[in-house]
Write a structure and sequence with these properties.
Blueprint: H1 4-14, E1 18-23, H2 25-34, H3 42-47, E2 52-56, H4 57-73, E3 81-85, H5 92-101, E4 105-108, H6 115-124, E5 129-132, H7 137-141, E6 152-155, E7 167-168, H8 169-173, E8 190-195, E9 205-209, H9 210-224, E10 231-234, H10 241-253, E11 256-260, H11 265-275, E12 279-282, H12 284-296, E13 311-315, H13 321-330, E14 335-342, E15 347-352, E16 366-367, E17 371-376, E18 389-395, E19 401-402, H14 406-412, E20 413-414, E21 417-426, E22 432-437, E23 442-444, E24 447-449, H15 451-459, E25 464-474, E26 478-487, H16 495-501, E27 513-516, H17 529-537
Parallel strand pairs: 1-11, 3-4, 3-5, 5-6, 6-7, 10-11, 10-12, 12-13, 13-14, 26-27
Antiparallel strand pairs: 1-2, 8-9, 9-19, 14-15, 15-16, 17-18, 18-21, 20-21, 21-22, 23-24, 25-26
């Protein structure tokens, strides 16, 4: 069955119940300044300055139907491509489902893309129509002469902000029928094109079927047991498979989701408090920020009733065990989980730790629900437990292909198995530990160094907030490991202090250079190693600088 049927089912069964809530914390700040916030009821808070918007399941489904009918009126049909370039907002998911209901392929796009990256991705995915928000008017205006294939553009925002080259989404959609379009969808129909994160190069276009999207729903709900009573706090960007596929558990269970437009620690805890969040998915930097704010006294747990919060889980990147240990000291009642996945496997869940396996923190888990895994050598043969090899996964959520790139597809799809490019090992209990990206391995003097192992070690230092390790060319050894170290706010450290801390590492794993600088991460929390290599590997290493 296509994923759109879940939305129609929820509208029929839970029509008046809230499906989506959008929280804009900047508008909430204005409301807090104007009144005694704690004395207001939820209804009164909702009315204040429009910071909180809600959408019922019935309205969600009708909005998707209206946009689908609008697209079809404008000549968009099965097989065409419709891109979404928007920040998280309450219109995002109805637009996504509206595209799916037409039989067209939806193409979510990274809101951090530059104008040139937007052009590249629109061209790569053969996009016919585009929906964009006010944050992208300037970038889109610069592209109008460069994207002739995109024959239709819709603007989501205030009428006075709308550029002349775009049609008004709300004004046109509201006039369209609220009934579902008469389009028959099949499991193997093309559904979505997602772009790889680009951490190892320029983005690739990843094509998925309706069957894969439904697989993501079933996997998420099986792993985290969402019920009608749950409230999912969604913070990461919806264009990425991670956020949306975790939300798919809310879709399957018919439960409420809260879209928070902001990542400040106080905003996260306040929203979890006021909305009664039960499930919160965080990226490593946000979890670290919350813990740092609690340790410094900037935030106090006693100011928030977080008793409904039952599950904190992290994905999209390796999770330092030291972070989980710190988290459990402040939130001992929280179940903790982590998911491994990639956009080629429709996001999180192909490998899953499980809340019952807290003793295996550091592992990414075992094969997820409906998935199979294996770790293989260069010839594709399984390696023995404990040996490092490439992780391969198999399941209904594997992509159809890299769109218009058969060579790249052949490189990773071997039969039904997707070769992830991630190096991993499996222990005697069958738990998988991520070692590093295959392309990130540093070979120094003939020894393989896996940066993730060093990064996890460095993050255990009490003054270090984040760390990234890259290889720098060196005449005698070929490569050496360089550590980019980001200190916690207010902390000071010297290169000698970090080197002394690293003496507990085997000699060949110790970083040969320490660089004090911010660690750049993309919108899904992954370290942007190409950016670091471009900055530091192209020439001499910058001098060590102390952070204040």
């Amino acid at each position: 069955m296509p994923i759109t049927e879940f939305l129609a089912r929820n509208a029929a069964h839970y029509g008046d119940d809230a499906a989506l809530v959008e929280i804009n914390p900047e508008l909430r700040e204005l409301a807090v300044a104007q009144t005694d916030w704690k004395e207001l009821s939820l209804v009164e808070r909702s009315a204040h300055t429009g910071y909180r918007k809600t959408l019922s399941w019935h309205a969600f489904d009708e909005s998707a139907n209206q946009f689908a009918n609008l697209l079809m009126e404008q000549g968009v049909h099965r097989g065409e491509k419709v891109a979404i370039l928007m920040m998280n907002c309450i219109e995002w998911l109805p637009i996504y489902f509206g595209v799916l209901k037409t039989g067209a392929t939806v193409v979510p796009m990274n809101f951090r893309y530059s104008a040139e990256e937007i052009r590249y991705c629109l061209e790569l995915a053969d996009v016919d129509a585009l929906v964009f928000g006010p944050e992208f008017v300037e970038r889109m205006a610069a592209l109008q002469e460069k994207i002739p294939r995109v024959r239709l553009q819709f603007f989501v925002g205030e009428q006075w902000e709308r550029p002349a080259f775009a049609k008004p989404y709300a004004m046109l959609a509201v006039r369209c029928s609220k009934k579902p379009p008469q389009v028959t969808l099949h499991d193997e129909d093309d559904a979505a094109i997602y772009f790889s994160s680009g951490t190892t190069g320029f983005p690739k276009a990843i094509l998925h079927s309706h069957r894969a999207l439904v697989c993501a729903c079933e996997v998420e709900q099986a792993h985290h047991s969402q019920t009608r009573e749950d409230v999912f706090l969604c913070i990461p960007p919806l264009y990425h498979t991670g956020a949306k596929m975790h939300w798919f558990g809310s879709l399957l269970s018919g439960s409420r989701a809260v879209l928070l437009r902001g990542t400040q620690s106080r905003w996260i805890l306040e929203t979890a408090f006021w909305e009664g969040a039960t499930v919160v998915w965080l990226l490593v930097p946000w979890a670290q920020d919350i813990l740092d704010a609690l340790e410094s006294g900037e935030l106090r747990l006693e100011d928030y009733d977080l008793s409904p919060w039952r599950l904190m889980h992290i994905g999209a990147q390796p999770v330092p065990p030291s972070l989980v240990k710190r988290w459990k000291t402040y939130f001992p009642a929280h179940a903790y989980d982590t998911n491994y996945g990639l956009s080629e496997s429709i996001g999180p869940g192909c490998v899953h730790l499980g809340v019952e396996n807290i003793g295996k923190v550091g592992a990414i888990g075992k094969a997820g629900y409906l998935w199979e895994t294996k770790i293989v050598d260069e010839q594709g043969e399984r390696v023995a437990p404990g040996e490092v090899g490439e992780l391969a996964v198999k399941g209904a959520g594997v992509m159809k292909c890299y769109y218009k790139d058969p060579e790249a597809t052949r490189a990773v799809l071997r039969g039904a198995w997707l070769h992830t490019g991630d190096m991993a090992r499996e222990d005697m209990d069958g738990f998988i530990y991520l070692v590093d990206r295959k392309k990130d391995v540093i070979i120094t003097g003939g020894e393989n160094i896996y940066p993730v192992q060093i990064e996890d070690f460095l993050r255990a230092h009490p003054k270090i907030k984040d760390a990234a390790v890259i290889g720098l060319a060196e005449y005698r050894l070929g490569e050496i490991a360089a550590a980019i170290v980001e200190l916690k706010p207010g902390a000071q450290a010297s290169e000698e202090e970090i080197n002394a801390f690293c003496r507990d590492l085997p000699r060949y794993k110790r970083p040969r250079r320490i660089i004090f600088a911010p660690v750049p991460r993309n919108a899904t929390g992954k370290i942007e190693k190409p950016k670091l290599r471009a900055q530091y590997a192209g020439g001499s290493v910058v001098e060590t600088q102390l952070q204040n």
